[in-house]
Every structure is written in C-alpha cells, then in structure tokens.
TrEMBL record:
Keyword Signal carried by entry: yes
Cleaved signal peptide residues: 1-25
Organism: Achromobacter pestifer
CDD domains referenced in this protein's UniProt entry, alphabetically: PBP2_Bug_TTT (cd07012)
Residues in coiled coil: none
Pfam assignment, any one: TctC
Family: Belongs to the UPF0065 (bug) family.
Keyword Isomerase applies: no
Source organism superkingdom: Bacteria
Matching PANTHER family: BLR1237 PROTEIN, TRICARBOXYLATE-BINDING PROTEIN
Annotated transmembrane regions: none
Keyword terms, alphabetized: Signal
InterPro entries for this protein: BUG, Bug_dom1
Name recorded for this polypeptide: Tripartite tricarboxylate transporter substrate binding protein
C-alpha cells in the first residue's frame, strides 16, 4: 500500500465523516409533524400548537400539528411508533398514552418505554374532585363520609371519562383511600360529565382542572380538592388532597413530547435543547398556565422515570379495583 494510496483513503474517510456530520447538523431540513391523538380544541391540542409555533421559530422549519384521534389515543401513538425515526414525526400526548393505558390494557401495539425516544414532559395536569351542587358534602372529608355511608347501597356514583381513564383511576384512589365502595359512571368527556352532574345523574365527578375550572367558577358544580403538590391558580380556594388529609389521591396527568425509537441521538438532542429553551420563555409558561396546566421541563430521563413509577402505581390500583381493558 503506497503512501499516496493511504493519503487518498484517509482523505476519503475524512470527507465521509464530514458529510455525515454535516447531514446530522442540518436537521431539520424539512417540515416537522407533531401528531396529537385527540381531536382539535382540547388542552393536548393547545399545548401541541403552542410548541409547534415556537419550535418552528427556533428550528427554522415549519412545524405542523396533525390530529389523529381514536381508540383512546392508541391510533395516533401507534402511528408515531411506526413512523420513520428521523425526527420529522413526533408525538405530543398525555399520560393516558404513556402510563394509564399501558398499565391497564393487556395488549397494545406500542410499548411506552421501548417504542419511543423520550424528549421531555412539558406540562402537568392536575385533576379535581367535583361535587353536585345539591350534595350534602362541602369538603372532601364530608364526601368521604357520605361515600362510606352509601357503600352498602351499591356505592356513591361518580362520573369519569370511561373505564381506565385517568379520572377513573383517581376516583378509585379516592374510594380506596377513604375505605368506600363507589360506582364509576362513564361519560364521553367533560361537557357530558358536567351536564350529568347538573342534572343529578351522579353525585361526584373527576375531571381535569383545565376543563372543570370554568364550570366551577360559573357555579355549575363545586370543587372539593385537586391533585398535585400545591393549589392551582385557577381554583385558589380549593385545597389539595394532601391538605385535605388524603395524600393517597396523587394522580396528576401530564403532557410530553416523544419521537419514534431509534431516532438519532443528535436529532433528539436538538429537539431537547429547543424544548428546554422554549419552556423557559415567560410567555410560553403563561400560555400554558392559562390552560390551567403547570408548565414544566422534565427531560428524557425524568420522563422515563415518570413512566416507570406510574406503570407500577396505576397497575397496583387497577389490580385492587379489578380494572382491566381489553
């Protein structure tokens, strides 16, 4: 092997390395799509569009939101899990996708830990225990007493978003914590739940703060307690479950951005840095707060830790309450 040949080989290898490095550094070279597995108009959709707008500015490419609802978020999540792992198809969804369904459903087409690259959690979504205005319970403890009194009569009825939903799990946490038997009644969403409570169909309900706060302020229902470590600005007079003496009711929803598994590390790093900077922006934080959500930035490792913890917690609750989804 001649010196000239060795020099040529070395030059070629350096050129290939430089080209590869340049190709990675060029991301993104085309529009990015964020899949939201819900219909337009909800909190998840709003967070996604906020991120899309800011990512477009920071990355220099248009970022669009594509709504792919269905099957309790499974359709959209599976579409992203199967997408080309190149950073141009992302998923913005909530804990329903990443922990609630995987903890309860025997089979899913995706795995919450291994089907995705976990970029960041960007918002926390506390839930609230609601009471019908005519109910003889104005505090959580009074609701607990009433629920225990009703245990031998079939159980106090409370509204949820359906079997295995986050409100259903939170309701079961409450029932278990206070030693009562309660009967979950499924509704298709917040609007239907509130209507049912106003009409007296159910005594209690569990809803997201973002959906329920306007109804509480309008006097249509009463809020008894919220989950999370501190009170929420939208309902400042409503205590947390911990303040009310029932810390076991700890379910807090959240929203997070992910990419398909095997997306190149430099691409994930680029997205992570962009999201971190976006979530430091006071205007972004205020916009998230205005949705009755708590703006946060929890990077990939914290995202994964949250999944592991909640899969265990929700799985235990579901097993004790005999909740299964087929």
């Amino acid at each position: 092997m001649t010196a000239r040949f060795c020099t040529a080989v070395l030059a070629f290898n350096l050129a290939v390395a430089a080209f590869a490095g340049g190709a990675q550094a060029a991301y993104p070279e085309q529009p990015i799509k964020i899949v939201v597995p819900f219909t337009p108009g909800g909190a998840t959709d709003a967070v996604a569009r906020l991120l899309a707008n800011k990512l477009s500015g920071s990355l220099g490419q248009s970022v669009i939101v594509e709504n792919r609802p269905g099957a309790s978020t499974v359709i959209g999540a599976d579409a992203v899990a199967r997408a080309q792992p190149d950073g141009y198809t992302l998923l913005l969804s909530g804990s329903t996708t990443y922990t609630v369904l995987p903890a309860l459903k025997t089979s899913l087409p995706y795995d919450p830990m291994h089907s995705f690259e976990h970029i960041a959690i960007v918002a926390m979504a506390p839930v609230v225990l609601l009471a019908q205005n005519g109910l003889a319970a104005h505090t959580v403890k009074e609701a607990a007493t009433l629920a225990k009194q009703q245990s031998d009569k079939g159980g106090l009825m409370y509204g949820t978003f359906g079997p295995g939903s986050a409100p259903h799990l939170a309701g079961e946490m409450f029932a278990e914590a206070v030693g009562a038997k309660m009967m979950p009644v499924p509704y298709k969403g917040s609007a239907q739940l509130i209507t049912a409570m106003i009409g007296g169909e159910v005594a209690l309900g569990v809803d997201t703060v973002s959906s329920a706060a306007p109804q509480v302020r309008a006097g249509k229902v009463r809020a008894l307690a919220v989950t999370g470590e501190h009170r929420v600005p939208q309902l400042p007079d409503v205590p947390t479950f911990t303040e009310a003496g029932i810390p076991q009711v700890s379910l807090v929803g959240w929203y997070a951005l992910a990419a398909p598994a095997r997306t190149p590390a430099p691409v994930v790093d680029t997205l992570n840095r962009a999201v971190a900077k976006i979530m430091e922006d006071p205007q972004v934080r205020q916009a998230v707060s205005d949705l009755a959500l708590e703006p946060v930035y929890l990077p990939g490792k914290a995202f994964q830790d949250q999944i592991v913890k909640e899969l265990r917690t929700f799985g235990d609750v579901a097993k004790r309450a005999n909740i299964t989804l087929e």
